[in-house]
Structure formats: C-alpha cells, structure tokens
Amino acid sequence: MNIMKILFQTLRESALIIILLFFNSCLSFLEEDNKSTITQENYFINANQAQTAVIGAYTGLNTFIMRSNYGESPFISIELPVGHSKTLGQSAHNNNLIGQRSAATELPFKHVWVGFYKAIANANQVIEKLPEVNMDDNKKKSLMGEVYFLRAFYYYHLVRLYGDIPLITDIMTTANPNFYPERTSVDKIYEQIVSDLKNAETSGLPNYDPNGKVCLGMVKSLMASVYLTMAGFPLNKGGEYYTLAANKAEEVIDGGWYSPLFSDYAYLHDRAHKLKNEFILQVQVLMGTNDLGTNGIAQLIIPEKSGISKFADEYGSLTPIDAFVESYETGDKRAREKQYFFSSYIKNGIEIKFGGYGLYKYWLEEAAGENGDQKSDENWTLLRLPEIMLIYAEATNEVNGPTDKALQQLITIRNRAELSTPALGTFTKETFREFIWKERYHELAYENKAYFDIQRTHKVYNLKAGKFVDAFTFLNESGVTFKEQYLLWPIPSDEINANPKLKPQNPGWD
C-alpha cells in the first residue's frame, strides 16, 4: 500500500485530523499565532501516532506540483529560466522567468519557500518528539531515517534556490529566542544536509520500498546528487566530493534496486508503472482522493487550447522550443513523435496539429477521447536511475577521466534511445564531460535538472552548436543572456517584511 493510501485511510481517525490541523496551521514558518501548542505537547503518545506524524512529513513534496496562479506551478518556475521553453501569454510570471525580469513579490517564489519550511517544521517536530515514544527501537530508528532524509531533501532545494537561508532544526515557538532567525551560510546548510543524510543512511532503512517510502536507495541517490553539487559552484569542493558522488551513485547502480530501465518511454508517464523500475523518488498522486486527484501536470504541459483533452483548460505553460527538440542526434528515439515530444494528436479520428511541440513526456493518455478523465493523477518524478547513472559517469570522469564502467552507463541509456556510443578511446576527459552533460540535457529534459546544472557548472547548452558555453555571455535561443542574479531566486518579499533579519536580499533582486 502506498503512502497516500495509508494517509487517507488513517484520516478516518480523529487523532490524525488533529495532527493534520497542526501540520497545516501556518502559512509561513514565521507565523506567530500558533494555536496547536497543546497538540505538539500531547500528540506523540503511541506508535500509531508516531507513524502518522512521519507520513505527514512527506506532504511537503507536493510543493513541486502545487498551483500558484493561472498556468503557474513550481516545477514550471524551476524550468523556465533555462531558456529552452515557451509559455502561454497569460502568465506574466512565466514570461518574466523566461525573460529574466521577475520581481521578488511573485507568488511561486513565496510558495516554494513556505511549502518547504512548513515541511521542515513537520520534520523537526517528529525528530524531537519521536525518541520519546514507546515503540520498537528498530522501527523507531527507521522512521527517524525517513524524516532525516525528508528534511535533507527540503533543505537541499531551499539552499540551491535561495542561497543563505535560516537553518531551523528545532521546534519553533514564540518563546524560542531564534523565532526570527538569521540566514545561515550555504556551507553550513550543506553540512546539515550531509549530516541528516548520514543519519538516514545508518538508520536501518530497507534497501528498496515498493510503495515509494524513503529507503536506502533514495538516501544514497540523494547523497550522490548533493556531493556532485558540492563539488561544483558555489562551494567548489572539487575532487574529494566528486569521489563521494561517484561512490554513492555506484552503490545505487550496483544495488540493482531500480533496474532495469523501462523498455518504453511511455511508462514514464502512465498509470500502470508508477513507482516501478527506474523511478527512485516520486511525488505520489492518486485518483479518488479529493483535490489530490488533480495535480495539473498534464493540463499545464498540453499545447495551449489544443483541444486534445477533456480538461477545462489547456495551459501550454511549459512547451519545448523547436530548437531543443531538434538538438537531439539524428535517429534518437526520444525525439521521435510520441516519445518525449509530440507535434500532433489524433482525437476521435481527427488529427490536431500543434504548430510546434508539446511535452509527450508528461501527457496523460487517459485524459483524451470522448470518455477521457478530467483529472490528472500523474506522479511527479524527483529522482530516477538514469540521473544516478549520469552522476556516476560525470563524477568518475572528473577524478579518473573516462572509464569503461562510466561509459557503460551512457551506453545503457543511449541503447534505449537507439543510439550508438563512441568507443572509450575516442574521448578525452574534457570531451567525455561534455558528452555526459549533453546526455543529461536530453535524457532528463524538463525534469528540473537543467537549471541546477547551470548553477553548479556556470555553463549553458548552445543548442545550435551542440556544445556548452559560458552561461553569462551566451545569448540563448529565447534571446536572453543568463543573468548571475538568476543563480538564485529572491527571498520572498513578505518574508523579509516579516523578518528584517533575512536582509540583505539576494543580489539583483532589490
């Protein structure tokens, strides 16, 4: 049984209703009027309540697919500054992100901050209270591992998006002298992330969980990503951290917990293959669970008003530019019709042409036709095995240059795309690096990886030339040169107004 099924079954218990009121009582982690103090003191009494509280710590993952305004969602906001997407004209925020002319007051910047800090508050509550609960010690340790992982995951995204941020690891009340916290340096945030992940790694978690709960495979995968990021900008820790990234990625690959890769790219976005094979971590969404049955992914990526679905609106908020689709190698299966992209759709026997490309990678087939669904229950993928394989290849190359095992990761990914791969001896360290980076752009396209790659490498992908160039001097295919300002998002204006200790604002956002 997966997490969301457990959550909604347990909602029938009145005690869970109480704790969920606590989990959702604050719109900001700075909210002063905390009406749930009694609940905080009295809730963690038995094992069932403790497990329910841990499930609540997962809810922050939904932040990625929440709605902000018309046609807006955080997973779109993270993608648009890369410059490889178009968007519908009705969202000023989306267009501002592409043109890199946003204001710090725009809602998605606030919603991500608030969503993740609420999730961290939930995690802190569990980490502090769970040790006091009378229950099986091994089960307790494993539950603590789940929450340590989740807190690390939330902080990993906050620190990359906002830079120096408040580091909060205890329960915040108005009596706490740090109720209005100052920002903590990026390196200290990463120290906490690594500490939490090491705690999770040694907590006795199972190697793999078929229901999508936190497991050792997820922990090691996130560690590989964290170490790779720490090796590059802004920390520039280099060789030692490339080695750490390679080692953790190798443990996941050799573990075989997420193999084999899917034989069909359609399995990346259908209902039958959720949580299976190469999926490591997903935001889980179910039909029949009230509003959680509508996450908006399919609606948001469908070409605007194309008429191919049963959705009331088809937003076109995240639409690949032609130049990106055309940057794939000749013969690459991923660029063929109805693999990662599509340019038309047959509905009721009539072909509807888009005049461009849509993201078939996130299209929900069940939403079309006379009897199509009007809800979208796709999971949003946060980690999958090809990313870990590419982390291993990149990190190993930075330490040792091209190796057979590193190349084999590329061969496996490219074989599925029906592409040949050059022999090992044809690569230098530099050319293998770019080969891997290009594969990241093409395999992980529109999965919220490219923006973070720009942050850590300060390189962007020149689609026409097929090579990587300096991010801050290249005029991209959307007619924009990446601004150093956009290496970070702004601290939400409302948060700075509520807590002046968060000043100064991130560079360029005043």
Question: What attributes does this structure have?
Answer:
Serine Threonine Protein Phosphatase 5, Tetratricopeptide repeat, mainly alpha, 3 domains, single chain, 42% helix, two-stranded antiparallel sheet, 18 helices, disordered N terminus, globular, 510 residues
How would you describe this structure to a colleague?
The chain has three domains: 3-175 and 490-502, Alpha Horseshoe (Serine Threonine Protein Phosphatase 5, Tetratricopeptide repeat); 285-378, no CATH class; 384-481, Serine Threonine Protein Phosphatase 5, Tetratricopeptide repeat, CATH 1.25.40. Helices cover 42% and strands 7% of the residues. It contains 18 helices and eight strands. The N and C termini lie far apart (48 Å).
In short:
The chain is mostly helical and 510 residues long.
Largest sheet: 2 strands, antiparallel
Distance between the termini: 48 Å
What is the strand content?
A: 5-15%
Strand adjacency order, main sheet:
1-3
Number of helices: 18
Shape: globular
CATH secondary-structure class of the largest domain: Mainly Alpha
Secondary-structure topology with pairs:
Elements: H1 3-10, H2 14-23, H3 37-42, H4 47-57, H5 74-79, E1 85-86, H6 92-99, H7 107-129, H8 137-162, H9 186-201, H10 216-231, H11 239-255, E2 279-283, H12 297-301, E3 319-320, H13 322-325, E4 342-347, E5 350-358, E6 380-384, H14 385-400, H15 404-416, H16 429-443, H17 450-457, E7 459-462, E8 467-470, H18 493-498
Antiparallel strand pairs: 1-3, 2-6, 4-5, 7-8
Helix pairs in contact: 2-4, 4-7, 4-8, 7-8, 8-9, 9-10, 10-11, 10-14, 11-14, 14-15, 14-16
